[in-house]
Design brief:
Length: about 600
């Protein structure tokens, strides 16, 4: 009997050995493929490691100190964060102050402990500047993320013509408050479904879709900086009565009223000349991140801690119309912009004109249907933001393929979901190469009627090279979701197709009507979608296998600059772009110790910039 069992045991051992060898082989293959995929996908940014540099006694005591200030519930230690598109790192602590006083105390405690600070809102940044980075890139201190999301009051003043917003107020929250006042808010971005904060808009000079309003800009601000002696200083130009705890309490409680407004304050709360400037269609660019005009907080990119800001609201049109307009060529689309959109002067400028090329429409159709469907079902709000955050957390897990599984799944199931666009519009994306989603408003001066007369005349003279579709309310929502999911669809498309991709945003001169010419034979997919009235372009390019994507990215940047363009235009420099010397000098002046967002825009990551 024993002799009979011995062969069975040997066979069993062989099978076990085979299974073990197979598991090791699969594990090795998975590791290799995971590494290949991580290199193939969009840039991953920097990885921080809190244990790489030994912490000092003050730094070890910092997290407990922060918990004393804001409460243990609102402090997390050794938190890995992932950016919306690039960037990944570990924060020594993430702290969420619940009051302005707490935010100032947290800031001073971090400086005293020789930690650097990363101001953060909704973490929707696209260039790596909203997440920590590590010692391997020269960072000599641990990073504390000060997340301002708990401070989100929005208060109307001046009969609703302005809103006072705490730093954590999301732009969708601001839009909702303005709508309650029968007004429009200052900013509508492609990422509005993630509810990025107003403070982030100020810090980046975010532009968005609003041709009549311009990028986020205000000179009415409350922000904190750190001086050369390491002391926190408060800068207040809100134009409100009171100071210190009295003012903070009213802001936090959402209790600011007209009685608190200083009538003599005439500082601007928007870029009032913007729509006049974009109509000129000259050699200037409409906006760009490295612009140095205005107070320090504007386009500061995290080099100060913004606490509150005041923003203009705008009249709603008495009636409006949304159009999907398709053209055979890019030159014809630009001609339409000149002869229809801008021909009536600043008073007739449409509220927005969003452009997508054929490849952009293709990418959303092939990889963005799930996102469009989800937004259409649950709407914009906290639930959608929670889902997005969960996706980012999953992608940060230290597991093989964790960084790509969500997008792989989205790509695989895409075909099970309906085309986001109604049939007539979907057919136009197949028959034409260039598309504009145009919102037209009537403000009481005949603007809508004049616009439609110019458009009808232009389309009639085009010989069929221009098609116009008037959207219903449901069509408008579908088209808006379609346009705003382009960026996320690109990542899903790249990962699903197993190709490497690059993303950039830039502003071309207002008169420029052509796209930078990339090398022939290297591109698998080239998405160009833009804020057309401003000539601010978002370009996502997937390359064929074997193409050096990094070289092509740098080449594209040079091509943009050769055309007189500026980049980045509105996503910020983050860790992806080197800022011009003039911009770097401005940031160094507002943050002389380099305690805020070290390394942004190509700056040194070291204390005092390595001096």
């Amino acid at each position: 009997m024993i002799r009979l069992l011995q062969p069975l045991r040997k066979a069993s051992n062989l099978r076990g050995a085979a299974w073990t060898a197979g598991a090791l082989a699969v594990g090795y293959w998975a590791g290799v493929k995971d590494k290949e995929q991580s290199l193939r996908s969009l840039p991953s940014g920097w990885r921080a490691c809190c244990d790489a540099n030994p912490l000092s006694a003050k730094q070890k005591a910092l997290a407990p100190k922060l918990a004393e200030i804001v409460g243990e519930t609102y402090v997390q230690s050794n938190v890995e964060q992932k950016g919306s598109r690039v960037g990944k790192g570990v924060a020594h602590a993430v702290v969420k102050p619940g009051s302005i006083k707490e935010a100032l105390e947290v800031l001073q405690a971090c400086v005293d402990a020789d930690a650097c600070i990363l101001p953060q809102g909704a973490n929707t940044g696209l260039t790596g500047g909203s997440v920590p980075r590590g010692h391997e890139h020269g960072l000599d201190r641990p990073t504390v993320v000060i997340n301002m999301s708990r401070l989100k009051s929005v208060m109307p003043i001046d009969n609703g013509e302005k809103l006072v917003c705490l730093a954590g107020a999301g732009i969708y929250d601001v839009l909702t408050k303005a709508s309650e006042l029968d007004r429009e808010s200052h900013s509508v971005l492609g990422s509005i479904f993630l509810n990025p904060t107003t403070a982030a808009g100020v810090a980046f000079g975010s532009g968005g879709t609003q041709t009549r309003k311009g990028p986020v800009y205000t000179e009415r601000l409350l922000y904190a900086r750190v001086n050369e002696q390491g002391k926190v200083e408060l800068c207040n130009s809100l134009g409100l009565r009171g100071e210190g705890d009295e003012l903070y309490a009213k802001l936090e409680a959402g209790a600011i009223t007209q009685d608190d407004v200083l009538p003599k304050c005439k500082l601007p709360a928007s870029q009032t000349s913007y729509r006049t400037e974009v109509c000129k269609l000259d050699g200037r660019v409409a906006r760009f991140n490295a612009d140095v005009h205005g107070p320090d907080a504007c386009r500061s990119e995290g080099k100060v801690l913004i606490l509150a800001s005041v923003h203009d609201t705008f009249p709603k049109p008495k009636k409006d119309k949304t159009l999907w307009v398709s053209c055979k060529s890019l030159e014809l689309a630009h001609k339409l912009k000149k002869e229809v959109n801008m021909a009536g002067g600043p008073s007739d400028v449409p509220p927005s004109c969003e452009y997508m090329d054929k490849d952009s429409c293709r990418a959303v159709d092939e990889a963005g249907r799930v996102a469009c469907w989800v937004i259409s079902k649950i709407g914009i709000g906290p639930l959608l933001k929670t889902g997005w955050d969960l996706k980012l957390k999953f992608e940060s897990l230290p597991l093989p393929f964790a960084g790509v599984i969500p997008d792989k799944v989205l790509f695989l199931v895409n075909g099970l979901f309906p085309n986001p666009l109604p049939p007539s519009m979907a057919k136009m994306t197949q028959d034409y190469n260039h598309h504009m989603l145009i919102s037209v408003g009537e403000y009481g001066g005949g603007e809508l009627e004049r616009f439609m007369a110019r458009l009808d005349k232009f389309a009639a003279a085009s010989g069929g090279d221009v098609a116009v579709y008037t959207c219903s309310d449901d069509d408008k929502k579908a088209a808006t979701y379609f346009r705003f999911t382009a960026a996320s669809a690109f990542r899903t498309w790249c990962i699903g197709s197993g190709l490497e991709g690059i993303s950039t945003d830039y502003a071309l001169p207002l008169k420029e009507v052509s796209a930078p010419a990339l090398d022939e034979g290297v591109v698998a997919l080239r998405m160009r979608y833009s804020h057309f009235g401003c000539n601010v372009v978002h370009e996502d390019v997937a390359f064929k296998r074997g193409v050096d994507a990094h070289w092509q990215h740098e080449h594209l940047k040079h091509l943009v600059e050769e055309k007189g363009g500026k980049l980045p235009a509105e996503h910020g420099h983050g860790t992806e772009y080197h800022a011009p010397e003039e911009t770097q000098k401005r940031w160094k002046k507002m943050d002389p110790l380099n305690v805020f967002n070290p390394g942004v825009g190509g700056l040194s990551t070291q204390l005092r910039y390595g001096k």
